[in-house]
Fold:
Amino acid sequence: MLSVEILKVFPGFTLDVRWEVGDGVVALFGPSGAGKTLTLQCLAGLIRPDSGRIVVRGRSLFDSVAGVNRPVRDRNLGVVFQGFALFPHLTVMENIAFGLDRVASEVRRRRTEEMIERLGLTAVARLRPAQLSGGQQQRVALGRALALDPDLLLLDEPLSALDSPLRRSLRDDLQATLRGFGKTAIVVTHDLAEVCQLADQIVVYDRGRVVQAGRKSDVLGRPASPEVASALGIRNVLEGTVLESTAEFVRLDWRGHTMVAANWPERPDLPAAGSRVAFFVRPEHVRLMRKDRGGPVPERRVNLISGAVVGEVDMGSMVALQFRAEGDGPPQARGYDLEIEVSRLVHEKLCVYYDRQWTVSVQPSAVQLLPGLRASAAPG
Amino acid sequence: MIVLPAVLAVASLLLPPAIVQDTLTVFAASDLQLPFGAIVPMFERVTGQKVVLVFGSSGALAAQIERGAPADIFFSADQGYVQQLVDREVLYRGSDQVYALGYLSLVTRRGSGLMLRTLGDLAGSGVVRIAIANPAHAPYGRAAQQAMRRAGIWELVEPKVVLGENVRQAVQFVTTGAVEAGIIARSLAGDPALVAIPVDPSLYDPILQTAGFVRRTARLELARRFLAFVTDTAGWAVMQRYGFARPTSP
Amino acid sequence: MDFAPILMSARVASLATLLAVVTGTPLAWLLGRHRFRGQAFIEGLVLLPLVLPPTVLGYYLLVLVNRSAPVGQLFDGLGLELAFTWRGAVLAAWVGSFGLFVRAAQAGFELVDPRLEDAARTLGRSEWSVFCAVTLPLAWRGLAAGTALAFCRAVGEFGITLMVAGNIPGRTQTVPLAIYDYVQANRMAEANALSLLTLAVVGLLLLLARRGSGARL
Structure:
């Protein structure tokens, strides 16, 4: 349980955030400079907020009204710094034991050894950080932070210092370790894949403010605004005009095509007919209609859009197609309207490279409305 | 790295201090370097007391003594500095005694091929530089300057004059060949590396070398014995050998 | 060979270096790990004795420690006379080497990554513990280099010593002063011997310091 309220004013930037999370892994997500690391530093006590409150598991770390400001060393937090900040002059063992200096030596030895074994560092226990690989260094940093059995774990971009090929497997390890931790762990990251794999809850930051916070599925599935959607890197954010809206669906017009979007029971508002509305379509939810099987089956005969593939981006196991829809009006941006993600297998089997004319369909549940409108509508 | 100096500091503090407690500290004008270098060992043998010699120009030594330097007895090369210190109550009044009469010598380096017969020769082209002690604080320097003035060559040779911090350093300039000639104390002119001729005594005021006892001294008796030793038979024989004469006044 | 100047130099240089390390480390830490107003001024003050002529420093020290000045009288009262004693020689050597130590030590402290200190704090260490366990070990090279430099400079101190402590054999005559005396007395063999000895000692020290600390001196 963690409750955070921080106001910190700098010339040219203000951090003004308020959020509350339970146990589990919480991702602080957003672009660089949004204030995520600053929040971590305030949590750790390395920077003092101008005003606010920070309460961890019922224990007040900072309270500007009550005049509480626990010194860094009394906060009982585990911090994994960006770049790890391992002590270069100490061995792995000494690094991990560093926070346990006031513990009885027998207990210290036991806990250190347990941690080393749990993280698979037995072979390198007596080496110095400079002699370790990036992944091993990350584990030492984790072990050092966890050794104190902290009330709260803070990780600042834990994987950004590592090479890409490693990142995937280390993310798996990190996920397992964080699961084992049990209490609240805050992970600052700007990598969406990290968020998706590691986090239970997400707090989205943008320019010093929280724009959305909640369970991962809620945030990723239903971004609160086009700004959040763009912060989350969501593509295909489009704008259309409402034709009709009910509790079950919203019918809208987009560039001459009629789209039906499933409405959510939790969303109380019914956009008025004639009003402009923003929505997005996930690239991976746009389906190419196969031409060899005699037309789409009825269930799929919905939200059909015809057009042509005008380009593609090879992403390894997936291919991102750039689709230009038929109809009046200029393309959304950069020459195309929709980004469609297909697996490489599909790309090859359907000979998309040669056959460019396609009809696509989108399930109503995959057309997601966004509250609010955006100044410019570009596909991501 | 802190270990090394710490060890050294502790070790050197524990070592016996280099100075023996009952040593006599003699501040002596630089012209006395050679004679006192011989007299002091004699004195030490006879009395069993240790003596420490500190040389320098009389003026520099006087200044140090006045500032509290731990001298027991002061052998100046003139009367003036001693008088000054007596007046300033640094030396015991009435303790001042003229112990010797000093003389000037004109020297060149042996083997330099330069032949000088009178002071006037200093004006010649073969002499580029002349070394004397600094008249500002060395009596022998003052005397040398006086001699050149009275010889009528001062204006000519002044640009050539090089000042040594004391008369010892002036000698050193000559022996190392840094200068061609020097006007120095006769007591230092006996160096085999030098060729020396006496300077006409009428050209300068008598160099009345005076001594005095420092008021702060705890070794007054020993100081008295040393002074007596210098002026008595044993010490005086050495002084005479180095060219000093008995002072004519009592 | 008269060993008195060698012993005197050993004592004076060691104590002066020790004094420089003890007084210089906190200052170097302050300058190297913090940003505060007036920092440039203090750094300039530290640099000053390194670039001022020794006679100027000697003069000011004399004014400070002679028996009629307050500082001089304070020390006299404690029975620790400064002028014309080996203590004065230590003072002179300390003045000459302090700045060298601080500059090298400051560079050492500056190299310490502040995030490592933050990490130590988050792991529950007090400020003093952070200094001892993280800052000091990581600044080690600068401190070691500074100590070596300070010692070499203290050994070679001449001008200030001459003015403050005088050149009194057995009391204040350090090796450089003894060499000067020998040269003046034309005793070149002894001057040569002492000079070679000093060269060997200082050279060896610098070599060891360079190897041991690996720092740029």
Remarks:
- Chain B has two domains: 12-101+206-241, 103-203.
- Chain B has a mean pLDDT of 89.
- The interface with chain C takes residues 1-2, 4-6, 8-9, 11-13, 15, 18-20, 23, 25, 30, 33, 52-56, 64, 67-70, 166, 168-169, 171-172, 175, 191 of chain B (CB under 8 Å).
